[in-house]
Amino acid sequence: MKSKHVHYRVKSIYDDLTRSERKIAQLVLNEPEKVIKMTASELAKASDTSPASVIRFCKSIGIPSFPDLKLQLSAEKDAPVVQQYTDISPDESPEDIKNKLLGNAYQAMKETIQLVDDETLTSAIQLISAAPFIYVYGIGSSYLVAENIAQKFNRIGKVCICQPDVHLLIASLTSAPERTLFIGVSNSGETSEVLALNDLAKSRHLHTISITQFGANSLSKQADLSLQTVKSKEAELRSAATSSLTAQFILTDLLFHTYVLKNYDENMASIRTSRESVDQYKQQTTKKNSKFRQKYKTNKNKA
Amino acid sequence: MKSKHVHYRVKSIYDDLTRSERKIAQLVLNEPEKVIKMTASELAKASDTSPASVIRFCKSIGIPSFPDLKLQLSAEKDAPVVQQYTDISPDESPEDIKNKLLGNAYQAMKETIQLVDDETLTSAIQLISAAPFIYVYGIGSSYLVAENIAQKFNRIGKVCICQPDVHLLIASLTSAPERTLFIGVSNSGETSEVLALNDLAKSRHLHTISITQFGANSLSKQADLSLQTVKSKEAELRSAATSSLTAQFILTDLLFHTYVLKNYDENMASIRTSRESVDQYKQQTTKKNSKFRQKYKTNKNKA
DNA sequence: TATTAAATTGAAATTTTATTTCATAAGTGG
DNA sequence: CCACTTATGAAATAAAATTTCAATTTAATA
């Protein structure tokens, strides 16, 4: 498990380093940003060693030259910690957990976004545009994705129904008008409920879009259009579906934003109007609720 | 609106560059990765100019030296395009949309994660551990967050109820046992429903945690413990709450993972067992559903 | 503990790379 | 077409990186 990150690389062979190499390692670990701005001799002076040791340190950690070390550090400065879906182990520091979570999420989003080609996206937008309204369905964590899609599109006046009750949904689909779109969300692409609904929709000649993870799966094959998110590796099992969710959310965002841009002005107007309406409602209910709240009002000073 | 990115910087003053500087600019724009590995004279040769021109080019785009240019390029290589919550405008290319979405999401997550201090996190974990069970509530897009929290914790056997019906939730809270935890999610921190529920919980001496955006707000003030996500700027209005959701999700993940690590082994066992159960259920229902699916089976060959 | 071999280290020499200087060439406006 | 500005690269210089090597420390062995 060799990470390319200088930080981890240094940590992992720290014990094998010589005394003066360790002095240099300290600085590299603790103040990488400063090291980036130093010359080899400056770093030598700062660590109370010699330029020769600095060069030796670079070689020791597997980096061919000092300028290369600086380039590496610079590359990592703002880049998320991406190490092929690392799982999180029990002896991790809070800092490490944070970095890994961020890195995993970033990687999942990035790869997912790269996976979607513009053509597919355009087709998806067309199906959405053509639909009088949309049904979305997902179960478990995919339900969150479905609900998110529905919320976003409803906000711009594109009617989108996320009905978690399969029976009711079947009834709706059965009597849905032409061009109605069904979006099925299933990470595995094998969830029987979603497959069944997709079949039903197809039998009624409705359009269908699937959102699944990457790779061959029944739902992708059977839907008119298949959108796929990155497939995350073993780490998935442990990290409780975290990165697949993130991936599906960024895909939703991409879909939504691309759609909004198709008809920029009118959609923007819708978003604004819906915001305003919500704000108005909030003001009204705040008044109403104040009575209710009075009853349970707690001391403002916290314990 | 000056971006620090070399790419944009070069583009913006491209017209003011001299003939040979432009040749160099081409290479920097088109093959930054290769440039990173070159020396000044190599870049000169590759662009059919001279080292002197390379240096002049660096100065022209406002970078003091050639090694600095390489460092900059390296820093930007893997870093997401982060430009303070840029909004997405109608004339954007698909590529730009993707980069901005990714950049915004990444920045929101990163800043949120940095915002949470370990102490608060530890306290939150303690409240969760101590609770016999948990109620979560959120409305609108915050409902997604609440539901996500519930799903994650339930998966490891920590009973967590996300009840969207306020009336039913009030009933439950009213008769909840000691140490029961109420988690209220509201991006603004001013949603009246959530405030009312927090009041109720407090009046019953239950513990409460709030999840809101950063800054002073009623909910944060009134909850026992306040978790905050980064507050995104104006772009928010247009991008339909995208980055605040992302931020809340990463916060959930952080909370969840930290909690799981507290009792690593037993929690891990729970996750595995719950996965297995779901898999078993899936196998069973697949059989059942096959009959239903037969009825609507469509041609496997897509149009 | 004394002795020797191996490893570590930094000063100085060397090499590589970056930068500046300056003479020449290419434009530009009159 | 001339004077003058700007642009350019060859060569000189400066700066940085790297290697060499002798001195020194450390470890191993008798």
UniProtKB/TrEMBL annotation, chains A, B:
Claim: DNA-binding is one of the keywords in the record: yes
GO terms, molecular function: carbohydrate derivative binding; DNA binding; DNA-binding transcription factor activity
Classification via PANTHER family: GLUCOKINASE, MURR_RPIR FAMILY TRANSCRIPTIONAL REGULATOR
GO biological process terms, semicolon-separated: carbohydrate derivative metabolic process
Source organism of this protein record: Vagococcus elongatus
Residues covered by the HTH rpiR-type domain: 4-80
Pfam families: HTH_6, SIS
SIS domain mapped to chain residues: 124-265
Protein name, as recorded: RpiR family transcriptional regulator
Record's keyword annotation contains Transcription regulation: yes
Domain of life: Bacteria
Keywords for this protein: DNA-binding, Transcription, Transcription regulation
Location of the region described as Disordered in the Swiss-Prot/TrEMBL record: 278-303
Extent of Basic residues compositional bias: 288-303
InterPro entries: Homeodomain-like_sf, HTH_RpiR, RpiR-like, RpiR-like_SIS, SIS_dom, SIS_dom_sf, WH-like_DNA-bd_sf
